[in-house]
Amino acid sequence: MITSIPLNRQDYAKSGNNFRSVIPAKQERTPLEIHPIDSGRSKICSENNIMHRHNHFEIVWITQGTGQFAIDTENYDISENLVFCLNPGKVHQLKGDENLKGFVFSFQKEFLYTGRDAVNGNFFYDESFRGNLDFSVIRINSDMQMEIMGIVRNMQRELANISFLQHDVLRGFLYIFLIYLTRQRDSSYTSPAMPQSCGLTKKFFSLLENTYTINHRVSDFASLLSITPNYLNERVKRDSGYSASHNIHQRIILEAKRLIICKNLTLKETAYHLGFDDTAYFSKFFKKISGFNFTDFKLKLTK
Q1: Which of 153, 184, 215 is the last residue of a domain?
Q2: Beta-carbon neighbour count of residue 201 at 10 Å?
Q3: Are residues 166 and 229 in the same domain?
Q4: 190 located within any domain
Q5: How many Å separate Cα 121 from the centre of its chain?
Q6: SS3 sequence of 79-140
Q7: By C-alpha distance, which of 67, 93, 70, 92 is closest to 79?
Q8: End of a domain among 184, 212, 247?
Q9: What total number of domains does the chain contain?
Q10: Residues 181 and 189 sit within 8 Å (Cβ to Cβ)
């Protein structure tokens, strides 16, 4: 039987069309959290009964059992020693059988990107070069399972005590953990090419991620970067494989789909959240870019 899997984390409460986190008063969050997945002994957490998302990185390591992992609009079969690495903002829901066990690792970008940007950027699809896939799926082989589990146990022991330079020690273990996972990445996976001179493209993607609800045109970003729209399109296409306009449109549609999945917003509400004043125009935009009529897309999710 497939059931929602408890992750032993904060509950989520529904209020209208919004989902908000409910955190006990005076609770302090550590920069790294490790939560067991154990469907056999824990009460089902309301958070994972629905599609939801976070503003932090998550790594989900399945050590036992089978099931499905819904991520945005796709469903993935899960099995033993499969690892999912999720960037902030991904809408997801884990469902598994009664034997499902594993771990969920949660940490903020600020903790991850302290001091060693190169390692982290290469592992977690950098927002600047994520292409069509902004999360990784990794299979851990049996030879490395015990090595990686040892690192996890070290992190758990460190988290169990308040010690001198605890954050530095945790960060060190996390780096080793990420490097080991990188080595286990499927050989069929190819990291997007990153040219030496891609600073402009990185700036564009950083602006896009932070202002896609305000800036919808290439000319908006070109103005912010003090270059021409044609030059921006050319540079972004050379570095990422797609033009600036394509990336802008895809980012807006991705967020629209996430809002529909996570909050079940109406066409008008979705348009408003994404900065579109003209609902009719947004409706045409959504269909042109996604290939689906807005209403048809919502109906597709319910089937």
Answers
A1: 184
A2: 22
A3: no
A4: no
A5: 14
A6: CCCEEEEECCCCCEEEEECCCCEEEEEEECHHHHCCCCHHHHHHHCCCHHHCCCCCEEEEEC
A7: 67
A8: 184
A9: 2
A10: no
- State which amino acid sits at residue 261: I
17: domain CATH number is 2.60.120.280
pLDDT tens, position by position, 129-154: 343 334 578 899 988 999 999 999 99
Query: Within 10 A of 163 (CB to CB), how many other CB atoms are there?
Result: 12
**Helix/strand/coil percent split, the chain, to 5:** 45, 20, 35
Q: Which of 264, 256, 259, 263 is nearest to 285 (CA)?
A: 256
C-beta of residue 216 within 8 angstroms of C-beta of residue 258: no
β-pairing, 92-96 with 3-4?
A: antiparallel
Give the domain range for residue 18: 3-184
Is pTM beyond 0.85? Reply is no
| CA dihedral for 121, 124, 126, 129, sign (positive or negative) | positive
The first and second tokens of residue 200, run together, are 């402009």
Average pLDDT, the chain: 80
Kindly state whether residue 189 falls inside one of the protein's structural domains: no
